[in-house]
């Protein structure tokens, strides 16, 4: 998932970027209000972390413009402590408000909360039913529930097939363990998050460790998995 940081303090912006990248997010930092809307439109982030006091165009104006065209979550940062400023930001469409100075760990936790909500919304969106999905050396038939790697059939359990199907239907997108558990196991799950890791390991082995599709199932440390075609 993608995060856009619009913050004029370079050291702070890079620090936030570094911490978010540790969780596997794709992060872009922009240091001024000028051109920020164009960066937002080109980058298509899943979350915006937006400073109020920016050179060129202030954060309140940017928040309003972003909200006019997108429902992307916005966390506003400010050194202002007045309640009126927080109310203005929230009324303009911000989803959260963090006052400076703040704990980086708290900001990252708030950001991850917003991103989990976004991912849940995206993951529950209706995915068009297709007769087959072919990526790299793997062809998957969702309705027939069959898989071929390099033309040869692969026998998968129901959970293994569902994991592969969810990942291949959303190439490039990081799916958290919680999301995979919810989508694949649902209410039947009564184990631990590492159950996902065990199933992914077995899935890779069945697909063939040297196959392109097995290598495309990538772990994102501390977050989950993605299919990188």
Automatic annotation (TrEMBL):
Domain of life (superkingdom): Bacteria
Protein's name in the database: DNA-binding response regulator
Organism in which the protein naturally occurs: Deinococcus cellulosilyticus (strain DSM 18568 / NBRC 106333 / KACC 11606 / 5516J-15)
Keywords: DNA-binding, Phosphoprotein, Transcription, Transcription regulation, Two-component regulatory system
Organismal lineage: Bacteria, Thermotogati, Deinococcota, Deinococci, Deinococcales
Every Response regulatory domain range: 2-115
Pfam families (UniProt xref): Response_reg, Trans_reg_C
GO biological process, one term: regulation of DNA-templated transcription
GO cellular component, one term: protein-DNA complex
Annotated DNA-binding residue span(s): 130-229
InterPro entries: CheY-like_superfamily (IPR011006), OmpR/PhoB-type_DNA-bd (IPR001867), Sig_transdc_resp-reg_C-effctor (IPR016032), Sig_transdc_resp-reg_receiver (IPR001789), WalR-like (IPR039420), WH-like_DNA-bd_sf (IPR036388)
Sites of 4-aspartylphosphate modification: 51
Record's signal peptide: none
CDD domains cross-referenced by the UniProt entry: REC_OmpR, trans_reg_C
A molecular-function term among this protein's GO annotations: transcription cis-regulatory region binding
